[in-house]
Structures
1.
Amino acid sequence: HLAGQALMSTEVDIYNLALANIGQKATVASLTELSVERQRCTQFYASCLRKVLAAHAWSFATKRETLAEVTNDTEAWDYKYALPNLYIHALAVLESDSLDWHDSFAFVVEGSYLYTNVDAADLRFVWYQDNPGHFTAWFEEALACLLASRIAGPIIKGAMGRQERNDQYKAYLVALGQAKELDSNQSKNNPVFVPSGIAARGGMSIHSFDDLISEQRSRRLR
């Protein structure tokens, strides 16, 4: 490759990393080939990507948009907004002129809509960033481990497949923790929305709240 040229991963690269993780010699050459390995990876890739994206406020998958207001159908909140395209999860609801990400107002997400008391609200959120060229190396590693845990059973079969699935999921949790820590270090201003119930009890640190969410998700997936 050209000197100084950035090396960017592709979806195929992540497929092959996942296959290598479960000891497969076969590799995928393209997203259109008819191999069993490609079909299994494609089958689970999108759901795995959404799951990893939902686990953290990733710096490369975070954006801010002004929300589109729709007709309100509740008295509990003053305004109702449609969620943005490719929405994964909300981080903060802000007034349109706010520059401080910590100035989040109360909100609730129900289905495809967000309710809040903020007029002309902006939403800071994690979106479905599916371009591997923007992934960090540790995010890519975590994604590959999770994908490996999903394809292990269908490809290997039997007790060995189940064991490999469990081992790869444990590897995913380790890689995810490292990816989150390194990504958080990219910014000293990386807020997480803390529910009012927790805030009323004195709150908790950003990292402890983030870890709590990950732990709860992990228990549901086991």
2.
Amino acid sequence: DPTATIGALTQVWANAGVLQDVVIGDGCSIGRGAEIGRGSTIGNRSRIGWNVFLPPNSVIGEAVFVGPGVICTDDAHPRVHLPSDPPYNAQPPVIGDGAAIGAGVIILPGVTIGEGARIAAGAAVTKNVPRYTGVRGVPARYFDLPYKWDALAPAMIG
């Protein structure tokens, strides 16, 4: 969309949709077929994989990796709304600096992924994930991160 702001050295690949009022930082990559919802923000050096869906007003920090096929949601009770219905209570995701989200993850409405958190491929994230923790499975549950991940996390962000 012409109202989007795309930072220096950022690449937006074929068939990606960057919608109205999106702000993307410097040095990012937006994968083929991704949809970045209206009003979303993506921090510097973040990578959004192929076929990722980010709903409107999503907040993605700096140096975040979002793997291919990740689906983020913002409506806890989705349905086709009638014109007379009140607007739904949108709850887009917030993903902290340096987080990494594996391929095929589903993130439910209102979830915050903390700084440096790790989400294993295929997880269904139903609750907030604290900073520097890891989750995996359906529904996602905590697991111990290898020590070297914790040690590297601040370096990835800075």
3.
Amino acid sequence: MKTIRKYAVIINIGLAILAALWLSQYYRLAVVSGKSMEPSLSQGDLVVVRMGGLPQRGDIAVIDSEVLHRRIIKRVVAVGGDTVIISDGELRINGEILEEEYIKEPYEHISDFFLVPPQCVYVLGDNRNFSRDSRMIGFIPIEEVTGVLIYP
């Protein structure tokens, strides 16, 4: 009887490890570092990331930036093929004003107009005055986007 219990415990531990390995291919935990995504995310917040997939406008993405040589978390405001116009304190995507209730505070816009290249995204931090994002590092290739937040 003790031998059967031993094997049952070993099998359960093995199944738990396999389940964890399988889930880690699709979901990961990450810890927020810095204040560039305030007020949406704060320093030390634990987030759940869905790995892979194409980010959509409005998603908060985890990016392995080759320019910055580190992992960053930013909001996707435009995707490949979108036109972006920044002028008079407004951000327009494909001609529509982007309503951004999530930004921390007003920030200085630099007038600009561009088309997001295919297989790229344009990302901004919610705390625009304290964020290194596409305004400085340019468009983000889709290959650098490792996942999108599903929680919180």
